[in-house]
Amino acid sequence: xxxxxxxxxxxxxxxxxxxxxxxxxxxxxxxxxxxxxxxxxxxxxxxxxxxxxxxxxxxxxxxxxxxxxxxxxxxxxxxxxxxxxxxxxxxxxxxxxxxxxxxxxxxxxxxxxx
Amino acid sequence: xxxxxxxxxxxxxxxxxxxxxxxxxxxxxxxxxxxxxxxxxxxxxxxxxxxxxxxxxxxxxxxxxxxxxxxxxxxxxxxxxxxxxxxxxxxxxxxxxxxxxxxxxxxxxxxxxxxx
Lengths: 114, 116
Known about the structure:
Chain A is mainly β.
């Protein structure tokens, strides 16, 4: 069965500092990989996704993620965090090629200090 | 981009009543829709998968008689929480796929259900 692990429940960074949120997955093959952001009481917004090809994926709001097959990881990064980036971040995996359900990690809550 | 509209965004009801949540795909045909439940400060847990014109597939542990899902058209799926109880209070989110697989999956903005 597929699973997603986000080891950091809560992270605090200063505005302007760099950010890396970790995500590890377990899947039989290379799944589709996603990062979503959720503001309090809101739905999910897709930041970026990886299907195949270039392992460094660029997303919205200045985020990027790197797929590392050898480590089964898909870590999310941002060079300089803004206060508005404070939110909950979810990593998710999905089976490629089908309209299948996503499996989400438990999320990482990002707090940004000024 | 594609939009999924979820309504209502927030509902408060008395214990024992039923609540219906709607999920609409506004500019694409959603052959498959998913319903998730999220408890405070936890991840999204898939409740069920619905395909247009057929019965929903429920995840293990989800009571299908309590959480009724109808996907009667390619643009609308509904989740009805029957005889709601306080333990049903949660954030419910739908997502919709437009035939393209999980790479074309769009989420609604969620419904906060509070059962008194």
